[in-house]
Amino acid sequence: MVQKPGIGRLVFVVLNYTFLIGLALLCLLPLIHVLAVSFSSSAAAMGGLVVLWPVDFTASAYKFALQKPEFLTALLVTIKRVLLGTALSMFLTILTAYPLAKEKTKFRWRTVYAWVFVLTMLFHGGLIPWYMTIKSLGMLNSIWALVLPGAVPVFNVILLLNFYRGLPKELEESAFMDGAGHWTTLWRIYVPLSLPALATIGLFTIVGHWNSWFDGLILMNSPENYPLQSYLRTIIVGQDLTMLTTTDLSLLNELSERTVKTSQIFLGALPILLVYPLLQRFFIKGIVMGSVKG
Amino acid sequence: MPIKKWRHELPLHLMLLPALVILIVFSYWPMIGIVIAFQKFIPAKGFFGSNWVGFQNFLYVYNLPDTFQIVYNTIFIAVMKIAAGLLVPITIALLLNEMMKERIKRTVQTLIYLPHFLSWVILGGILIDVLSLKGIINQFVSLLGIEPIYFLGSNHWFPYVLVATDTWKDFGFGTIVYLAALTGINQSLYEAAVIDGANRWKQTLHITLPGIMPVVILMTTLSLGNVLNAGFDQVFNLYSPQVYESGDIIDTFVYRIGLIDAQYSVATAVGLFKSVVSLLLISGSYLLAYRFAGYRIF
């Protein structure tokens, strides 16, 4: 029984589509504007002539950014951090979630451990003692300071342990009958079966490492150890061009502070823009699975 | 058979060991480091070598002229963010649910999640450019004949800019939760309502809203734990000395007095105050979420 929509319904539908499409554009347009500025000539950018399409197209700001040694070293630090940090976090998450997913009857200490882990989500020592701890370990200026302190993402552990619990118990029992131990059961049965959950967590970890900037800013004493986002933060705040512009004067004539900034902002966002549609496919399951269990 | 049980459980203990070590070093040791809030801390002497001063650091902060303003800013900004962060995603999820064209719906969804994945450094860069006096928004505003607005430099506008841009960043992500709740509603309820002559609005009021109510209650109670978190990353990347008056929050204050001015003990005292109140709020909100929505962490 299909009812004919009334005029009120029709007006609503039109308004609804307009509003939501407008909202979607609102999330996209600022990025496109910045992209357009970064590809515009310095005069057009400074004159405020650019809206959503480059004026006097030029890629010289990108050439400048990609030749800049500071930018490249920062990028390298970030890549190192993402690879090392993600591998370590994923390994620890997989390893930790398994015992915590056990029933209390199978693993008597489980509840005690679970609280030890959860407590770290509820209470922190605060910024200064945290900083002092890392400093006293002599880790300032080392890549380990960016990777180790956050290597156990308790929230992800909880997501994964909830997923492990959803797996049929019979699988584990039959593995034990066949003589497998915990280690084998974990890597041969649990891990392959939880690939969707692991992909979600993994992508989030990658994005998290790519995006973090504050630890780099305070734990690295010299800018050449900054990861990309910490480096970008120093550019956004200012000082940049006066400090770093001795290299290519002819190139610099075509550049403005604004195009240089926007090109680097865009480069810093680019990898995320490439992976986030992928994330969307996973996270609807992943997030809902973890955060809204009835 | 206790021995056999121990042998069965030993590998489980070993699996937890590496993570445990990391947590002890980087989470529990800094908790012990809180003692410096009660000391006149000298870094060279370590967490326990410095002189004890009791509550002197707390009294010092209590008597600072800015303290009240900073706590007020934090709560004001956080409460507005929490409210907007609940209302906007619910509304958008309901509106998206009325969209029948699957492809447009999915595209809209994908685009509204976009800002969530970018760091506040990137978004800060974009927003500083877009919201500046010569930025694209002010160009548009001046077309309408209004004086340019210094969004990031005016104490009147700054807190609202924080709330608006934070909502802009995260509403798409929040929408997911409510969309998931919407798909969980029994479709036969709608069919029954149509037979009873309920129009779209009536259906929303009597089926959809009650249907997602448990999730709304859950998200509301959980968000209560965040009243002292006004968003360090965002404020830090958008503020400047001009807007300290309206935009300085507890976390940025701790950063400045602690790491910039090197008043370690004072900053730790402020941090401890925040941690304790946050612990109470978060525990309270988990308890409420458990009571009213049956929520459990695991």
TrEMBL record, chain A:
Entry's transmembrane regions: 6-31, 43-62, 82-100, 112-131, 143-164, 185-210, 265-284
Topology class, membrane: Multi-pass membrane protein
Keywords carried by this UniProt record: Cell membrane, Membrane, Transmembrane, Transmembrane helix, Transport
Residue ranges constituting the ABC transmembrane type-1 domain according to the UniProt record: 75-276
Subcellular location: Cell membrane
Gene Ontology CC annotations of this record: plasma membrane
Gene3D superfamilies (UniProt xref): MetI-like
Tagged with keyword Transmembrane helix: yes
Any one of the GO BP annotations: transmembrane transport
InterPro entries, alphabetized: MetI-like, MetI-like_sf
Electron transport listed as a keyword: no
Pfam families linked: BPD_transp_1 (PF00528)
Family affiliation: Belongs to the binding-protein-dependent transport system permease family.
Record protein name field: Carbohydrate ABC transporter permease
Species of provenance: Paenibacillus aurantius
Automatic annotation (TrEMBL), chain B:
Superkingdom assignment: Bacteria
Membrane disposition: Multi-pass membrane protein
Any one of the GO BP annotations: transmembrane transport
Predominant localisation class: membrane
Transmembrane region(s): 12-38, 70-96, 117-137, 176-195, 207-228, 264-289
InterPro entries membership: MetI-like, MetI-like_sf, UgpAE/MalFG_permease
Compartment(s) where it occurs, according to its Swiss-Prot or TrEMBL record: Cell membrane
Domain named ABC transmembrane type-1: residues: 71-285
Keywords: Cell membrane, Membrane, Transmembrane, Transmembrane helix, Transport
Cellular component, GO, one term: plasma membrane
Family: Belongs to the binding-protein-dependent transport system permease family.
Protein's name according to its UniProt entry: ABC transporter permease subunit
